[in-house]
Fold each of these.
Amino acid sequence: MNERKRTNLKALFIILAAALILAFVYLALPKERGIERRVDATLVQNGSPAERRQTALTISGTYKSSLFGGDSFAGKVEIDCLPVTAGELLNVVFSAEDKGYGALTYRSGESLEFVGYMRMSKTADEVIICLFEDMGDGRKGWSADTGAVISYPDSIENIGDKLY
């Protein structure tokens, strides 16, 4: 009887260990989530935050996440208020190694033009885009005084704690 009890405990231990290993492997494998979303966002010109206007964002791509980090997004982001047409925008790619930021770019002839950079949550429920402004001398950049920000929802208060 004692031997049978010991055998049953060993079998139970092996089953539990196998279940834990399978659960760990399942959680560790990368997960892909398709994102297709069109939202009404708010554009704020930082030099004059009283000037707020609505613009639409279309986000389509794939978000990959895994247990050990290495989260990334690859896809397109269309911004209605930009003069760049949707066909000209290039794929946005960002990952945890980029601190969650992705460059918004398009091809202009032979050169690559930067529109700005973006950061978003894993489900695109929260998005912030910093649009570059003309800094003079043909340079573009972003600063708190002259840059523009697009956010969705427009009530994002502490972006660093909530996103990516």
Amino acid sequence: MACILCVAKSKTQTTCPFNFFFFFFLFLFFSEFPKVAAQMINPAAALSDPKNRSFYCSLFLVASLICGAYFIGGATIAHEYKEVLYYLLSIKWSRKSFLQKLTRWKVVYNRQNTNFHTCRNRCQPSGSEALPEGIIAKTSDLEPLPLWGSSVNNENSKPSKSLLAIAVGIRQKEIVDKIVKKFLSSDFVVMLFHYDGAVDKWRDLPWSDRAIHVWFAKRFLHPDIVSEYKYIFLWDEDLGVENFNPKRYVSIVQEEVLEISQPALDPDKSEVYHPITARVKKSKVHRRFHKYKGSARCDDHSSAPPCAGWVEMMAPVFSRSAWQCVWYMIQNDLVHAWGLDVQLGYCAQGDRTQNVGVVDSEYIVHLGLSTLGVSDGNKASIMASWVINSPDPSQKGDSKALAPSSSDKVNDRSKVRMQSFIDMQIFKERWSAAVKEDKCWVDPYQLSTN
């Protein structure tokens, strides 16, 4: 008991030796008690024996020392045991407090554990754990709502299935007007990115108030905002859509399970920079390009861009899952996104040779206009010719407005072009550095060849 108390408080460690010797003396006394009692019956005989006299002297001396130490240290011992008593009482009360807390924890645990099998698989968004699941709005959308008369229970107010996001400048107003009208008639949400800042000059168009006018895709097309839309069309503005039906296109990419796609380009009317994007007649979809001559050949065994798994960053269409990946690849400080198309296959949600493709049955015309910067006369004439030959006769008389004025001939296109190449080089360097630094990342296409 004495040594247990010593462990309980450091000060009482000084009393351990005394207690040990005290009990040890008692042990010796009682172990020798039968012998001493027998000798006390005949004390004269016991004292006459020199060995007995020596024993009694030693016993008396030890008893005197023990008793003296006991009485001298009594006050200290009493003080030590008093502190130990206080310590034990504090433990008792602490134990009581602990038991009370333990009881409360047990109640909370039992309450949380009641529906363990129901709740263990719940996956709430980070930061929403403190809220009941039914109140959590996990997604958002770009659907405009009125300030009054909001139809919460109106089934017709559900957001559109897909989104068209298109970069526009006021010089291509007529072309964009045709594109937007076609998509709005197919129940798309339309978002315009005004790279020239001329937002007010679009107000005269009937659909202007239905469109969303913003700036940069990286900032306004966050996956959480556009997660309500099944497909995101991220298009340039210089595209002809006479032979394109948005609803049929969506139906085809769903049927073909294309996570990343683009409509094919009419090779007779378009500027085609990458052969894989050209339309294949009498085909619904193609996923690769064949080239059997020259240095860069493409055949059925090719598995890397530009032979397979490739679309151009001109009219790409992303599934919801693919866009969530692509969004993270867009660099905030690289405006033109050149070089991004080479790596899009990594976001194909599987094999890029199967999940990336070009839709031939719904095709477009790429006018190849110098939209970023002032265009020259030849490019303007291409656009004017397309407008004149369009099926909408009301647009023919406006073709003169497309011709460049004298002030338009101040050409900044070369600067835009140079910046595009700089952006592409920076992106390539960042990609290479990221691959080298990330020791945990495994390239699924490391062995891909053409």
